[in-house]
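Need a sequence for this fold. Nothing fancy.
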């Protein structure tokens, strides 16, 4: 039996998910060709009801205000270490089905990688609200996908079912935060564990992996923290 591909549970909501994929990209080139990407997000009432009906639930616990304020500072610090510009988006009543189910629809049409890239650019580089139909339509156009197909994803029963499959899988695998990498029985939570994952991946597959050194820390910017896994939902 063929071994399962390594998996990455990701979320468009999480800056740490974005930063982890950036580091994986620098090490692997095109991580979506190596890893199985599985979306993970706060479900709306319809998705949550379908998940519950299948015996699942959502493990993630919403963060406190102090933790959120810390995350604002820490994510920007880590982005600067990677030489990335970052604009923090303002989420007003976000509907996370829009980008995540949209990604599933785009992936079905062979454009998952391009759609992912354009959502990231919209959210973390331009600070746009990727949960709105206007923004996600522009994202789809840039990714080469029919915007109508992506916008219809939230009402498409097959795409909805695929989304529930993803969240049920996360429940069954005890995924509690993002980013979360799995390599066989080994688990790696948080952007700070990406190097550990890459080392384990290189050892298991015999594939040489070069972990690029991050850029020098700009003046006035702290280094990586040692008391956090660098993960969030």
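Here you go.
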């Amino acid at each position: 039996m063929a071994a399962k591909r390594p998996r990455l549970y990701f979320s468009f909501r999480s800056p740490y998910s974005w930063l982890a994929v950036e580091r994986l990209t620098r090490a692997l080139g095109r991580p979506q060709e190596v890893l199985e990407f599985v979306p993970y997000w706060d479900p709306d009432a319809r998705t949550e009801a379908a998940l519950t009906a299948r015996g699942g639930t959502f493990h993630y616990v919403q963060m406190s205000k102090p933790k959120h304020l810390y995350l604002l500072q820490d994510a920007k610090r880590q982005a600067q270490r990677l030489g990335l510009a970052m604009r923090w988006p303002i989420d007003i009543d976000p509907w996370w089905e829009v980008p995540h189910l949209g990604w599933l629809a785009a992936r079905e049409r062979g454009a998952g990688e391009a759609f992912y890239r354009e959502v990231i650019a919209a959210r973390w580089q331009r600070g746009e609200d990727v949960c709105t139909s206007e923004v996600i339509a522009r994202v789809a156009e840039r990714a080469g996908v029919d915007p109508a197909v992506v916008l219809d994803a939230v009402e498409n029963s097959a795409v909805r079912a695929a989304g529930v499959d993803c969240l049920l899988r996360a429940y069954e695998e005890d995924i509690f935060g993002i980013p979360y990498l799995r390599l066989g029985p080994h688990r790696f939570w948080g952007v700070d564990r990406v190097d550990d994952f890459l080392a384990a991946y290189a050892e298991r597959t015999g594939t040489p992996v070069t972990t690029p050194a991050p850029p020098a820390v700009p003046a006035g910017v702290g280094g990586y923290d040692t008391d956090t896994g660098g993960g969030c939902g």
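For context: The chain has ten helices and four strands.
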